């Protein structure tokens, strides 16, 4: 048990300022935490968080000074975390990923010095749900919160309408609460006829994951009443692919290894790699996990589709003969990975291990660019400007230097951006600057990830600080 467990408000003081780690703990189960998240909490002197989230990490809290509060007291939690830095190092806990409707923005906004703050990326709830269901996003996906507590509803509606027009897959956070139920019906109307994945308590006790349709959800009040603030919805759309996945143990595992640093592996991924007989993947992925498993490691050569088919065929052969096989993807399998091509050839269910997405890691390095509604694009496209104009933050993968100028056409030159390459790997580089300065710099190269922050963002001491709207509700 923790050595202290206090309601927020008490203070102790020693003349020493420590580091603040804003830690994404994943959607709930210990298996979906990363080693980096656990290490940050274990090494902290004080841990601050929302009471139910602290219960999810109770195994990490013995010997810690623990400070908790209830729902709606985010500002108080961050104030407490900042004050506690006088006592030593502090971990401020955020469920899922700290940059996805999490505490990264508010923590960086209220910290006296951003250089004293570290944001630790975690597995996001919507990608964990997608992996459970075997759902892959090949081209694009948007995340929108239906809570209008901090974001004006007209802004939310404009983003939903645009996502509907573009037939973009959409993850809906905060879909319904006791006092707020009409927004879900309006969102279903704006997004049109779709299949809907309903995921509640992902990875936690009482998990429910099942498919429905927007029409059925709009028609059946009883079905809507099963949806609460612990539920998220994922609406299918252009480029979505559904494979055969199982939530339980399987002889064949598709493993997201995160962006590259072994500390970014989840414990589930680490266990799968340690216990399997053969691991299949690209040489660069096999090299990254070389010290994580004694299993035989196999790479394939040849044209891309053929390599994917060969991996699945050989992995299934291992599984059929009683062995355990893993196939690696970078980042998270559901986000723009080769996983869907591999799953397309699966004849048996595959267990999919979520990973920390590349966009999460870049965002954590840059600060807090994505804590409001955002869209992910697998490559540059003409629709990026429309998404940015509607107020989405953007993460665009596979950008070449010459594509940056068209992507930023019409964007406010003062809007913060981050341009990253090989984050969490050897040769990592990341620039945080304004859109105007990036255009003037004319960078050359390829395989960049470009992050365009939300409109209500600014740069302080080299970090992107994004306001979620707490300043309109609270005084701080």
Description of the molecule:
By secondary structure, the chain is an alpha/beta fold. It folds into four domains: 4-122, Cobalt-precorrin-4 Transmethylase, domain 1 (3-Layer(aba) Sandwich); 135-242, Methyltransferase, Cobalt-precorrin-4 Transmethylase, Domain 2, CATH 3.30.950.10; 252-356, Cobalt-precorrin-4 Transmethylase, domain 1 (3-Layer(aba) Sandwich); 373-455, Tetrapyrrole methylase, C-terminal domain (Methyltransferase, Cobalt-precorrin-4 Transmethylase, Domain 2). Helices cover 29% and strands 24% of the residues. α15 links the parallel β19 and β20 (393-399). α6 packs parallel to α7 (182-191). The radius of gyration is 21 Å and the shape is globular.
Q: CATH top level of the largest domain? A: Alpha Beta
Structural class determined from secondary elements: alpha/beta
Mean pLDDT: 93
Largest sheet: 10 strands, mixed
Instruction: Tell me the count of domains.
Output: 4
Radius of gyration: 21 Å
Q: How many distinct beta strands?
A: 25
Runs with pLDDT <50, length 5+?
A: 9-15
Determine the CATH topology of the largest domain.
Cobalt-precorrin-4 Transmethylase, domain 1
Please tell me what the overall shape is. globular
Identify the CATH homologous superfamily of the largest domain: Tetrapyrrole methylase, N-terminal domain
Record keyword descriptors for this entry.
476 residues, Cobalt-precorrin-4 Transmethylase, domain 1, Methyltransferase, Cobalt-precorrin-4 Transmethylase, Domain 2, 6-stranded parallel β-sheet, 24% strand
């Amino acid at each position: 048990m923790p050595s202290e467990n206090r309601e927020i408000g008490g203070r102790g003081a020693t003349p020493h300022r420590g580091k603040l780690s804003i830690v994404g703990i994943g959607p709930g189960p210990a298996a979906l935490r990363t080693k980096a998240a656990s290490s940050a909490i274990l090494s902290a002197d004080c841990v601050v968080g929302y009471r139910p989230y602290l219960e999810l990490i109770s195994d990490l809290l013995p010997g810690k000074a623990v400070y908790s509060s209830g729902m709606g007291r985010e500002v108080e939690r961050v104030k407490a975390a900042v004050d506690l830095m006088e006592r030593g190092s502090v971990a401020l806990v955020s469920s899922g990923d700290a940059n996805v409707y999490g505490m990264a923005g508010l923590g960086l906004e209220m910290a006296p010095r951003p250089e004293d703050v570290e944001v630790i990326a975690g597995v996001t709830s919507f990608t964990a749900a997608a992996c459970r269901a075997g759902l892959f996003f090949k081209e694009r996906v948007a995340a929108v919160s239906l809570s209008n507590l901090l974001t004006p509803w007209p802004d939310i509606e404009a983003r939903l309408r645009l996502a509907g027009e573009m037939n973009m897959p959409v993850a809906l956070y905060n879909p319904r609460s006791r006092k707020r139920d009409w927004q879900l019906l309006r969102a279903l109307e704006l997004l049109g006829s779709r299949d809907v994945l309903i995921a509640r308590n992902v990875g936690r006790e009482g998990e429910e994951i099942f498919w429905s349709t927007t029409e059925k959800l709009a028609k059946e009040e009883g079905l809507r009443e099963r949806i609460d603030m612990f539920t998220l919805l994922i609406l299918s759309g252009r480029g979505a692919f559904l494979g055969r996945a199982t939530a339980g143990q399987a002889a064949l595992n598709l493993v997201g290894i995160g962006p590259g640093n072994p500390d970014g592996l989840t414990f589930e991924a680490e266990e799968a790699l340690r216990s399997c007989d053969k691991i299949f993947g690209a040489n660069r992925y096999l090299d990254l996990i070389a010290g994580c498993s004694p299993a035989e490691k196999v790479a394939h050569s040849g044209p891309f589709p053929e390599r994917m088919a060969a991996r699945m065929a050989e992995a299934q052969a291992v599984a059929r003969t009683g062995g355990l096989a893993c196939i690696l993807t970078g980042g998270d399998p559901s986000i723009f990975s080769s996983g869907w091509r591999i799953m397309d050839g699966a004849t048996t269910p595959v267990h999919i291990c979520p990973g920390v997405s590349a966009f999460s890691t870049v965002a954590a390095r840059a600060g807090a660019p994505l804590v409001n509604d955002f869209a992910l694009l697998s490559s540059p496209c003409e629709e990026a400007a429309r998404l940015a104009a509607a107020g989405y933050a953007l993460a665009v993968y596979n950008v070449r230097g010459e594509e940056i100028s068209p992507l930023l056409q019409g964007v406010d030159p003062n809007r913060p951006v981050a341009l990253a390459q090989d984050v969490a790997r050897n040769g990592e580089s990341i620039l945080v600057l304004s859109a105007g300065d990036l255009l003037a710099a004319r960078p050359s190269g390829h395989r960049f990830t470009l992050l365009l922050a939300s409109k209500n963002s600014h740069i302080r001491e080299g970090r992107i600080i994004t306001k979620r709207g707490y300043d309109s509700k609270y005084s701080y």
